[in-house]
Amino acid sequence: MHRRALALPALLVVAALAAGACGGSAPALTDPGEILTKAVETLQKAKSLRLEATVDGTVKLDLTGTGSGGDIALTGTSLQADIDIEKASARLNLAVPALLGMTAEVIVVGEETYVRSSFNPEKFQKSSTSGAGLPVDPTDPEASLKELQDWLKKPEVDPKKLDDTSCGTKSCYQIEIDLSAEDLKALSPEAADLGDASVVLTLLVEKDTLRPASMVVTVTSAEVGELTMTITMSKWDESLSIEAPPADQVE
User: What is the pTM of this model?
Assistant: First the structure.
């Protein structure tokens, strides 16, 4: 009897622990606006990350200034950026094959920016990068979230949650924002310069961490061209060492 009396509470404890383990995950989110807001909240708490971007497609540009633009293939354009959010520093490498094979290296340390390109590869050019002109104060997370929430509430935005999808080894929420030319002009008068361009944003957010995993921006326009930009985010909170270039490499 004593063994059975001791065994029963033990079994109940094991059952309770098992139930807790099976049901311990947070419930899945269904509101696309909430998913995007939480993704931004997670991004604001990050210490560092790597951002990689690629561009595919063509754009109509008037590089000669004659008023008759031609199609420029931007396929192969790439950007890799290691960003230390805590220390307000970053290291970027950009490649734009369509612009005479241009490459560029950018180092940001605090409010100082150093740029060196393949057009002038010997020295970095130094400039100030004060954030005073930014539309949202990066030092005020609550203001940034309020800006996002207000933007998501605009009728032109109307984010939609698509079926969950895989993102690497994880499962991701998938959110789409489809903006017509009229939507863009209503959201920003400056968008009138884009003519008939429409934009589709597709964002993936990791379900377990709520970190943004990737974003695909597709621009379609008879006047501007057709472009697809793919942005991925990885290497969260890894240690980075980003320093200004040596003085003898700066002019």
Answer: 0.80
